[in-house]
Amino acid sequence: MKQIPLQLSKLDYSMLQQCMHCGMCLPVCPTFDATKLERHSPRGRIALMRAITDGRLGLSRAFAEEMYFCLGCLACESACPAGVDYGAMFEASRCDVESSRVLATRKRDLARWLALQILFTHPRMLRLAGHLLRHYRNSLLPKALHQLRLTRWFPSWVREFEPFCPELSLFFSDQLIKEQETPKIKKYRVGMLTGCVQDLLYAQVNRDTVDILLVHNCEVLTPRRQSCCGSLHAHNGNLKISRTLARRNIKAMERLAGSLDSLDAIISNAGGCGSHLKHYDELLKDDPAFRDRAKQWSEKLKDVSEWLKQIGIKRLPSGGEPKLVTYHESCHLCHGQKVSAAPRELLCAISDLTLIEMKESTWCCGSAGIYNLTQPEMAASLLQRKLLHLESTKATVVASANPGCTIQLEIGLRKSGRTLRVTHPVSLYAEAYRKGLNPENA
Ligand code: SF4
Ligand code: SF4
Fold first, then answer.
1. Are strands 323-328 and 301-303 parallel, antiparallel or unpaired?
2. 3-state SS string over 108-141?
3. How far apart are CA 327 and CA 112, in angstroms?
4. Per residue in 352-374, pLDDT tens?
5. Which of 212, 274, 323, 391: CA 20 to 30 A from 245?
6. Closest Cα to atom 5 of ligand 1
C-alpha cells in the first residue's frame, strides 16, 4: 500500500502545483549552487514533495536526507515569480519525515527528545542548563578535562564548537527587564518577546530593544512566562509542540496586556523567531479557540526595526565614536519576513556610523537553526564564503539581527582569529544613545 504523508497531503494541492519549473530560484539556492544537482534545488525538492503526495514515490530515507540537506533559508521564496510558499511545504515535509521515522535511531531520538521536548519546551529547564553550562565554563573543569584528554569522549560537535562558543549572558532577560516599562511620553503600547537563545546568550540585546522602544515613546510589556516561539520544533518536524508553544505565548501576552487588542504591536528582535511568530495564524487556523487570537497576533507581530521604521526612527546626532559597520541579513528576516531596508535605516540613524554593504548579504551563513550541527561540511563552506565577504568590506563591526547568525559568525571569526565584533543593530543604536546622543536634540 502506498504511503500518503499526512502533513503534505493536508496542504492545499494547488500549492504543490504552483511551481512552473522556471528555474529562477536555482542561482539563489545555496545547496544547488554547491552541488549543481537538480534534487538539491528548490524545484527538484518541490517535484519530490509532489511525487510523494501523489503516491508516485514512497517516503524514503533519500527524501528525508534531502529535506535535511535543505537549509530552509527561503531564498527560493524571494526569487520565485510564482509566489511558491516553499516554507509551508518544507515544514510539512519535515513533519512527514519524522512521522515516517525513516531517519530514526536511538541516538537521534534521544537528542530530539532532549532538545525539542525538554530544553526548548520548558524555559526553566533551558535556563537551568544555561546556569550549569556557565558554572562549568567558569570552573577549572574544562581545563582539567582537556589536560586529562577526557574531552575525546565528547561528541565531535561539542569538541569542535565548545572552545569558540559565545559566553552565556550573566543575567537573563527577566533580571534586566521589568514586566512593564513606561516612557516619559507614551504614544504606543507594545508587547515584547525575549526568545530563548537570545535570552540565554544575548539578553543584553533584549534590554537594548526595550530601551530603543522607550526612546520611541513605546510602553513595553514583557510577559514573564513566555515560551520558545516554536520555530525549532516546526523546522524539525514537530508541529504539535510548535502549536502548544504558540498557544502558551498568546496566553502569556494576553494575561499581561489584558487583551491583544490593547497592543499596537508585538515585537520580536530575532529574525528566525519573528518569521515563525508571524505565522501563528497559519499554525493555529484549525483551532477554534485560538484561530482569531492567532490572526490578531500575526497582524501585530513586527520585527523591532520594522516597527521603528513604521513609527519613524529618531536620528541620533553625531558626537560618538566613528564606526565602520557592515550588515549581514538573517535569511528569515529578509526572505521570511521581507524586512531588509528597516535594519539598515536603523543603523543609518546613528550619525557616526558608516554602513558598508557586503557582497551576498542575503546569502545564508550556514547557521539555519541547527544546520551547522547536522550538516557541518555544507555549513562550514557557507560560513567561509560569508567570512571572506565580511573581510573584504574592511568593517570592524558586523550587525546581525538573529541570534543563530550571531553565534555562527562569532564562532567562525574566533576560529579564524579575526577580531570583528558581531552585534545586533539595536545594540549599536542603544549604545550610541547611552553615550548621551539624545535624539530629541538631533
Ligand atoms: S530553502 Fe534555501 S536551501 Fe532550501 S531549497 Fe530554498 S533556497 Fe535552497
Ligand atoms: S522560481 Fe518558483 S516557479 Fe520557478 S522553479 Fe523555482 S520554485 Fe518553481
1. unpaired
2. HHHHHHHHHHHHCCCHHHHHHHHHHHHHHHHCCH
3. 33
4. 999 999 999 999 999 988 898 88
5. 212
6. 42
Mean pLDDT over 91-106 rounds to: 95
Q: What b/e readout covers 304-341, taking b as 16+ CB neighbours within 10 angstroms?
A: bbbbbbebebbebbeebeebebbbbbbbbbbbbbebbe
CB neighbour list of residue 389: distance below 8 Å, 6 or more residues apart: 358, 359, 360, 361
Cell reading at 435: 553615550
Q: Say how many Å lie between the CA of residue 45 and the centre of ligand 2.
A: 11
pLDDT band at 120 (very low <50, low <70, confident <90, very high): very high
Q: DSSP labels for 198-220?
A: HHHH-HHHHHHHHHHHHHTTEEE
> Closest by alpha carbon to 409, among 427, 428, 426, 384?
384
Ligand nearest to the CA of 74: 1
Closest CA to 193 of 108, 275, 118, 282: 275
Give the ligand with the smallest distance to the CA of 20: 2
79 CB less than 6 Å from ligand 2? Answer: yes
Minimum-distance ligand 1 atom for the alpha carbon of 331:
2
Please give the model's pTM, rounded to 2 decimal places: 0.93
Per DSSP, which regions of 52-186 are E strands? 180-181
Q: Which residues contact 121 (CB under 8 A, 6 or more apart)?
A: 227, 228, 233, 241, 244, 245
Mean pLDDT across the stretch 112-134?
A: 90
Give bridge partners of residue 423 from the DSSP assignment. Answer: 399
Q: Are 236 and 98 in contact (CB under 8 A)?
A: yes
190-215 pLDDT tens trace? 999 999 999 999 999 999 999 999 99
Mean residue pLDDT of the chain comes to 93
What's the one-letter identity of residue 259?
Answer: S
Domains and CATH numbers, the chain: 6-100 (1.10.1060.10), 314-441 (3.40.50)
Q: Whose CA is nearest to atom 3 of ligand 2?
A: 19
Q: Whose CA is nearest to atom 2 of ligand 1?
A: 73
Determine whether the shortest distance from the Cβ of 73 to ligand 1 is under 6 A: yes
The bridge status of strand 353-355 relative to strand 265-268 is unpaired
DSSP 102: T
Alpha-carbon distance of 329 to 348, in angstroms, equals 15
* Binding site membership of 71 for ligand 1 (Cβ less than 6 Å): yes
